[in-house]
């Protein structure tokens, strides 16, 4: 499975592509950070991110996109910029029919380090070890993008099993409701026949 990990942001947007192998083996194929100047108008910044993401998706052809879910932050403008960048990327994936999954920062940290409250240095260290990189990926946005892709590779089998279980449960609920409705209709018909 080829996963494109994205750490969205307006000023710095981390992009990575990894490929999962057998078990928990993951190989890094590419990593970069898209930068947009803060003095540039928002539409142009989003367009710049979109252009690079389009190129990456067309070049690397990922099977799935893993994007960091915007979680609570104190700076509203940062949250908005992160959400807008993430939206541009999700839209580009949807246009290509590529599945998109969102992971919270704590899910990513827990998957990569075993600690949902790990700091950036710990995440970078573990990403370097997991991918057996010669040097630590910099800046932190690059490491975060790789961590997102790793997280999705490792969580994908569980997510697939959960989706299958939820689909089966929904199917069983529908079957039960249909059976219940049929019994209710049968009972009402029997009552109506008894009154005659």
Task: List the keywords.
alpha/beta, Nucleotidyltransferase, domain 5, five-stranded mixed sheet, elongated
Quick overview of this protein structure:
This protein is α/β, with parallel strands linked by helices.
Describe this structure in words.
The chain has one domain: Nucleotidyltransferase, domain 5, CATH 3.30.420.10. Helix 1 runs parallel beside helix 2, helix 3 crosses helix 5 and helix 4 packs across helix 5. The protein is elongated and about 85 Å long. It is of the alpha/beta class. The model has no long low-confidence stretch (mean pLDDT 91). Helices cover 59% and strands 18% of the residues. Strand 2 and strand 3 form a beta hairpin. Strands 3-2-1-4-5 form a 5-stranded mixed β-sheet, with helices on both faces. It contains 5 helices and 5 strands; from the N terminus they run E-E-E-H-E-H-E-H-H-H. It is found in: Cytoplasm. Keywords: Cytoplasm, DNA damage, DNA recombination, DNA repair, DNA-binding, Endonuclease, Hydrolase, Magnesium, Metal-binding, Nuclease. Its cofactor is Mg(2+). This is Crossover junction endodeoxyribonuclease RuvC. It catalyses: Endonucleolytic cleavage at a junction such as a reciprocal single-stranded crossover between two homologous DNA duplexes (Holliday junction).
